[in-house]
Structures are given as structure tokens and as C-alpha cells.
Specification:
This protein is mainly alpha-helical and about 60 residues long. It has one domain. The protein is globular.
């Protein structure tokens, strides 16, 4: 999961870490917005896969 989220291994739970730092307003810098355009689709995919696993379905 660390590789998919582009996070260092030193962060124990990268998914929770990223969800806890979700922006609450529009990013002011282009770089901040770009980072979330890369990470957000990956977060959604991981949550989708976890949902399927929780309900005993095989993710597509």
C-alpha cells in the first residue's frame, strides 16, 4: 500500500495518515493540488477493494 500511495515505509498506516490530512478547502498552490490528484484515485481504489473484501466479494 505504501508504494501505491507514494508514502514512505516509516509511516505505519499510510491510508489513515492521508485521510487525516485531507484538505478542508481548495489548495492554494498548484503542487498541493497535484499531489491530491495523484493520491485521491488511489485512495478510492483501495477503499473500494477493502469494501469488497469486507463483504466477501472478489474485487474486479
Amino acid at each position: 500500500m505504501h508504494c501505491r500511495l507514494l508514502m514512505p515505509e516509516s509511516i505505519g498506516d499510510p491510508l489513515s495518515f492521508l485521510l487525516n490530512i485531507l484538505p478542508t478547502r481548495r489548495p492554494r498552490s498548484f503542487d498541493a493540488a497535484t499531489a491530491w490528484t495523484v493520491r485521491w484515485p488511489v485512495i478510492c481504489t483501495i477503499l473500494y477493494e477493502l469494501d469488497h473484501l469486507q463483504h466477501s466479494k472478489i474485487p474486479p
